[in-house]
Amino acid sequence: MRSASFLSFPRLFGVILLLLLAGYATLFAQEKAARPVISSYTLGVGSAHVADTYLTPLRYHGTAWRFDYRRLQAGPFAPERITSKADVSLSLEKTHNPAGNATMWDAMIGIDWGLMRRWRPLPSLALAVGGEIAVSGGAFYNTRNGNNPVSAKASATVGLTGLAVFDFRIGRLPARLIYQPSIPVAGAFFSPEYGQLYYEIYLGERKNLAHCAWWGNYFALDHLLALDLRFGARSLRLGYQGKIYSTHVNHILTRSFTHLFVIGFTTEWLAVNPRKHSSLRLINAF
Fold first, then answer.
1. Are 169 and 195 in contact (CB under 8 A)?
2. CB environment 267-282: b (16+ within 10 A), e (fewer)
3. Which residue, 36, 39, 40, 111, is CA-closest to 74?
4. Nearest CA-CA partner of 178 in 118, 116, 126, 232
5. Residue 158 to residues 69, 120, 127, 254: CA-CA distances in angstroms?
6. Is the CB of residue 20 less than 8 Å from the CB of residue 248?
7. CA of 50: how far to CAs of 41, 53, 107, 232, in Å?
8. Local confidence band at 4 (pLDDT 50, 70, 90 cut-offs)
9. pLDDT in tens, 14-35
10. What is the pLDDT of residues 35-61, one digit of tens each?
11. Could you give the CA distance from residue 61 to residue 46 in angstroms, rounded to a whole number?
12. Does domain 35-282 have CATH number 2.40.128.100?
């Protein structure tokens, strides 16, 4: 038994070494392929419609602001077929009750990352679909509530994402139409019991705070429709961004709808030295 065990270690070491060499060979082969990064920065302004029965039974309406950073790149593996994405969003909403004598603020941050399988059915059209993981957190704050003015929000989900890109020209100017949706499918999210104070949670009442997320109690849709007017490596982005956020658990109903006009710019960059890598093959995210 000892001899067999002793002999297995060199074999195991050899297998690991072969795997490392194979991985190194793969990375070395991919050095001949460069994957430009497409980054976009947008600011959105529009309308917000919010309801949160933990704070108030009334619906609030007002203004929403949102900043987004989006990153697209051909995947780290199989770059001819895979596109990776990463999004970071910061949003702020200021809404008022129907009488106009109370204000509710909503601040959220969201981060997601995903991989998509892409196709190019036409020279000017690219389509992609895949999965993503996302985390988000924030809070609603009602200035009228003195005893319990805050409703915290947090979630971690896996979901579906997609991408559609159509290239065309407006006269002589190259343009690109982009549609990018994201929708969670399953995960977990935070919600207190109906009427439970956060001070009670602080004192130790922490049962039934995490809930399984599915479309029956947690639904969100975030989608962007944008037009990129391309001026070389930089583009002016104009478009529409909408978001639906809905949860219903512990007899607490939360609804948030935003409609935003977005403006920003997109850049395409590549961190290589063309003098040292003159024969690189470029693989675009689209």
1. no
2. ebeeeeeeeeeeebee
3. 36
4. 126
5. 20, 26, 21, 20
6. no
7. 26, 10, 12, 41
8. very low
9. 655 565 555 544 544 444 567 7
10. 778 899 999 999 999 999 999 899 999
11. 11
12. yes
